[in-house]
């Protein structure tokens, strides 16, 4: 097993593989980095000379790609050659929640990871370090090792050796480049034998090109795997905690931002991740917590499982609560009413919409026959329609069950909307002014900075009255908007 590498491959050119490898290539010009994917369109977009076409929108990413691409950073669909040539292979493929069979709706679907391991086993002719970059359940390295070793067993004596490392990624979307350039820590877990130690050394050497050594943590492999799920569970738990309190603030007249500030100044609690919202989204928090819950049930720890599951249930509740407030305020029905959505992405500064609260809020408003008009600075119409269509086919059972359990929110089981119905009721606009014209209400779903800078008087003048604003991110200037004449409701604002 090499303890230094000059050739890296990464399988999966998504939100993690693309930016992570671009930064490794930028910071390590002596290492050739090839990112491969089975999706040819994605690879073509990564190779597009027009950098605005990169498949992942992240502030600063275009400059990193411009610096390293075709120097030592390459994007390709030739998975086999990349595997063959590399000494170190990152697996950075998607690990979504299973939508079928055993563990449906809870466990991580590891079929893509397994396919990568099988492909590496088939193609490799020399020793390789295999790095888990995807977020995986604890003990997945064991499964990868079993697959890799089975190829070695098949050809004893001539076959390559493998070492499996866990190197979870902690970047957040929207700040990926900043996070990668200056991570709080890099975590590397490895096997305890000599090969494992050499492999860890090789990966530490890569990061040490720009990350101070004291921030590169090395652990046992199982600790590293479990730390990733734990980090996401803790982060999401803070959001659900403050969102739970936002409901109490609304009943009592307390202001959730003041409460968050007051508790956040306690250094033991800290100020970050205490922003109340319409609910967390993103491809990972829900998926990773459900995966943790599944693991706890698997290991017969039902109390631990229930504890973490509550974080996701509370998040479902928060999305419903926001929607219910819109319907209640608009005189108990939104049927035929025009609701403008500002934002569709799951957070600002990204074009990613996976699990965005906006999708769930829209779906529930559509169940009540609303007309929805969306403006998002980075999300195209095709994505919005695809998100709504996907939800129709993949509602989580928990989500359906949660609906009638909210007091006063007795409703039918959600109807499945056809693509045609979705297209009739949902309209996507190129400007915020077009989206909000003649609207009965505006819902702010994403915290894009530009939303604060609009001509709110102009928006007010073009809306139906009373003009309601539901600020699901608490980003707008409430006093200013009230002065104009808006009826504004925020999250946790008594
Ligand atoms: P993604 O869906 O954006 O990208 C995954 C890519 O892998 C896709 O382009 C897909 O075509 C490709 N792929 C799948 N199977 C393949 C195969 N056999 N060969 C070649 N390519 C293949 O996913 P992502 O957001 O980059 O997430 C990847 C992993 O990283 C997940 O496990 C996720 O939990 C984890 N993660 C994500 C983030 C994030 O911010 N998105 C942060 C930390 C960790
Ligand atoms: C999150 C973690 O922050 C990363 O460390 C991790 O690597 C990543 O998941 C992952 O594993 O995929 P990400 O989902 O990209 O990153 O973005 P976050 O900034 O964590 O935001 C997640 C969601 O929580 C967003 O919808 C955001 O709007 C919401 N949020 C965040 C709040 O509602 N309140 C907050 O205080 C913070």
UniProtKB/TrEMBL annotation:
Keyword Ion transport: no
Catalytic activity annotation: UDP-alpha-D-glucose + 2 NAD(+) + H2O = UDP-alpha-D-glucuronate + 2 NADH + 3 H(+)
UniProt keyword terms in alphabetical order: NAD, Oxidoreductase
Active site: 284 (nucleophile)
Listed GO MF terms: NAD binding; UDP-glucose 6-dehydrogenase activity
Segments passing through the bilayer: none
Pathway terms, separated by semicolons: Nucleotide-sugar biosynthesis; UDP-alpha-D-glucuronate biosynthesis; UDP-alpha-D-glucuronate from UDP-alpha-D-glucose: step 1/1
Start and end residues of each UDP-glucose/GDP-mannose dehydrogenase C-terminal domain: 340-478
SMART domains for the chain: UDPG_MGDP_dh_C
GO biological process assignments: glycosaminoglycan biosynthetic process; UDP-glucuronate biosynthetic process
Residues binding NAD(+): 12-17, 37, 42, 93-97, 134-135, 173, 284-287, 354
Primary enzyme class: oxidoreductase
Binding site for substrate: 169-173, 228-232, 268, 275-281, 346-347, 473
EC number(s) recorded for this UniProt protein: 1.1.1.22
Function comment: Catalyzes the conversion of UDP-glucose into UDP-glucuronate, one of the precursors of teichuronic acid.
Family of the protein in this entry: Belongs to the UDP-glucose/GDP-mannose dehydrogenase family.
Name of this chain's protein: UDP-glucose 6-dehydrogenase
Protein species of origin: Prolixibacter bellariivorans
